[in-house]
Amino acid sequence: MVSNKPTHGIPLKSKANMIDLYSSATPNGRKISIMLEEIGLDYTLHHINLGQLEQKRPEFLAMNPNGRIPVIVDRDNDDFVVFESGAIMLYLAEKTGMLLPREEKARSRVIQWLMFQMGGLGPMMGQANVFYRYFDEKIPAVIARYQHEGLRLLTVLDQQLAERDYLCDEYSIADIAHWCWAISHDWSGIDIDGLDHLETWLQRVEDRPAVERGNKIPESGTSSEVKKVGASMIIR
Ligand SMILES: N[C@@H](CCC(=O)N[C@@H](CS)C(=O)NCC(=O)O)C(=O)O
Q: CB–CB of 178/114 below 8 Å?
């Protein structure tokens, strides 16, 4: 449960809660707020204003040299810092024993689908957003390339979901990671008509109370605000 009201800037510590989450209203950020809501750890949200480049300030770079959200600090583990959303999900799953199976092969399957999201769907849909939404110059071949690749990856998910309710049978961090990107297919200009298993799964995950809560942390801006922030980041 998020314990404090969202703050802006980068406060150094808040000992009252176990996890400090540095995040923004983006797919990679939402993975972690949804996960924290699912596992029920107390956390404090520090809303990083990407448009103001708070993620490039020295105090943020000291936590993540890559200057990107999300980041967590575990106050329950010597203020251990974790960056990269996939690594954060694995860390929290291992800390709590939740959303990642113990059994070796089942665990490996979840990690495989998580890596597939981190290396595939996220980067491809991210670039589709850049060229379809944020770039002033519209380059049709580039837009088509990223949208086709995004759709191809979503089709792989659709096939995987044809015979199971969740990507690896039981709901796991792989579902959270993919859902956060797949749900924004419209923003990337990717039409998922005909991917019926994917659509059913998107709704199934969305219906989870923890997903509904975590998906609003932090709150999104309007479409034009999101577009402005997206456009401001790509040229830097
Ligand atoms: N691979 C990283 C990607 C993180 C990432 O790209 N975060 C974006 C928001 S979704 C960001 O912080 N962008 C700010 C910037 O590019 O300056 C992860 O999964 O954590």
A: no
